[in-house]
Amino acid sequence: EIATTDEEYVKWTQWIFLQLFNKGLAQQSEVPVNWCAGLGTVLANEEVINGKSERGDFPVERLPLRQWILKITEYADKLEAGLEGLTWPEGTRVAQTQWIGRSEG
Question: What is the pTM of this model?
Answer without folding.
Answer: 0.59
